[in-house]
Amino acid sequence: MKILQVCPFSYGEVGGVSMHVKSISERLAKRHDVTVYATNPKMKYPRYEVINGVKVERFKCYSPSDAYFFSWEMLFRLRKTECDIVHAHCYHALPMHFSTLAKCSKFIVTPHFHGVGHTPFRESLFRLFKPFGKRTLMKADKIIAVSDYEKSILCRWFGLKPDRVIVIPNGVDLSEFSGLERQDHDYKSILYVGYLSSFKGPQYLVEVLPKLEKNIVLEIVGSGPLRSYLERRARELKVHDSVRFYQNLPRGELLQKYADADVFVLLSRYEAYSIVVAEALAAGTPCIVAKTSALTEWVDNESCFGVDIPISLNKLAKLIDNVLDNGADKKAIKRWRGNKILDWKEVVDHYETIMS
């Protein structure tokens, strides 16, 4: 089959949607002709590139505050495109909606839908955009949600019949975690991995540090507009020596961070699935998440623990202390595998069944 994947971001960058597109595209390319249309907001990447058998074509775009990803180049290119399958990603950016212009036998969308805009301005645009967004979804032959939560809000928001939406979770390359062993350290560590934006919640981890024991280190892996604020706030709270920032870590080093952490924490308000939680659990690390959106599906109070929104720093500190002191049920962590944590190979098998 000739398959086109349409991704709003620069193919290969860190991030849930980008990782999803890359992971399924490279596995599909072993048996099919796969092309990815991606954007190139800061012109950091080549216009054309072949990566692990995937043909990548990148387009100039307008993306203020890393949003919208509007590209005339991609729009015109899609109008001339013919293929068997168009698989478009991310409702919250324009390329998915432009994808309806391509000629294909089957149109599939994976919306990664949150149900909200991430700022008041984006929220107003998000609601105005709803009729146009619904037209895109109605044109799709198949709509793929990555969690039951996402399926429920897609059906509620757009009046979709439940049988039009299929749930296929994101995946993890489980082979990466085999043989991964924890390295001992003389402190207790809290790990955050993700985009540094206020809706993701890393600010609460800096704020809670003064309420925790002195031998705790907060490790933050990622980049984003909140980085300078987090650094400044850590200095103001006199905990800057206990906060370590990393970005663009090689994959092996990131995996080791997951394995070495005593607890992984994600206090995001909006998640359609959360690959970073899946990876932390695959590494055997207990998690704490906000009890909101699809993150609630991870909470079992044995391996993954939930904290209410709005965040109470006192309650968060108490929960972190409890997990650091008691750890998690290792059997409970293993139960996620094959259930909510699938190998990417299994995910691609599901996609191929839908595409055929």
CATH architecture of the largest domain: 3-Layer(aba) Sandwich
Kindly state the mean pLDDT as a whole number? 93
> Strand fraction band?
15-25%
Unreliable residue stretches: none
What strand line-up does the widest sheet have? 3-4-2-1-5-6-7-8
End-to-end C-alpha gap: 9 Å
- What's the number of extended β-strand segments? 16
The CATH C-level name of the largest domain is: Alpha Beta
For the report, how would you describe the main beta sheet?
8 strands, mixed
Principal-axes geometry comes out as globular
Number of helices: 13
Radius of gyration: 20 Å
- CATH names the topology of the largest domain as Rossmann fold
Number of structural domains: 2
User: What is the H/E order?
Assistant: EHEEEHEHEHHEHEEEHEHEHEHEEHHEH
Name the assembly state.
single chain
- CATH 4th-level superfamily of the largest domain: Glycogen Phosphorylase B
Helix % is 25-40%
**Which structural category do the helix and sheet elements fall into?**
alpha/beta
Question: Outline of this structure?
Answer:
With 356 residues, this protein is α/β, with parallel strands linked by helices. It has helices at 16-28, 72-79, 94-98, 120-128, 130-139, 148-158, 202-208, 227-236, 251-260, 275-282, 313-326, 330-335, 344-355, and strands at residues 2-6, 33-39, 48-51, 54-59, 82-89, 103-110, 142-145, 165-167, 171-172, 188-193, 216-221, 243-246, 263-266, 287-290, 304-307, 342-343.
